[in-house]
Amino acid sequence: QVQLVESGGGLVQAGGSLRLSCAASGSIFTINDMGWYRQAPGKQRELVASITFGGTANYVGSVGGRFTISRDNAKNMVYLHMNSLRPEDTAVYYCNAKIRLRAFDSRAYNFWGQGTQVTVSS
Q1: Exposure pattern of 36-69 as b/e (b: 16+ CB <10 Å)?
Q2: pLDDT, tens digit (0-9, with 9 covering 90-100), for 17-67
Q3: Strand pairing of 116-121 and 10-13?
Q4: 3-state class of 89 per DSSP?
Q5: How far apart are CA 91 and CA 109, in angstroms?
Q6: Contacts of 42 by beta carbon, 8 Å cutoff, 6+ apart
Q7: What average pLDDT does this structure show over 65-94?
């Protein structure tokens, strides 16, 4: 069984920083794209940042240059470093990964973590 586990969420004042981590484990052949999503109460889940196996990153426009996504392929981990946090960044943040399970199966399957709460106070 493949599992994604997030950590690093918490309560921070506006202008502060947090670093989220996500570890993938289980029967993994390779991990293709990875990403971070967030969902605030009453709102749709949105993609915050994504990163390819080769390290090409994309971000939602609202985070500007404040967030940085990175990954460690050797450790099957992805990170989200969040700076200059704003109250509107408050949400549950979810790790996502597209994972190949077997060498002979080229399909990548979509997996989600359980989420970690980020709360930014004013």
Answers
A1: bbbeeeeeeeeebbbbeeeeeeebeeebeeebbb
A2: 999 999 999 999 999 999 999 999 999 999 999 999 999 999 999 888 999
A3: parallel
A4: helix
A5: 25
A6: none
A7: 97
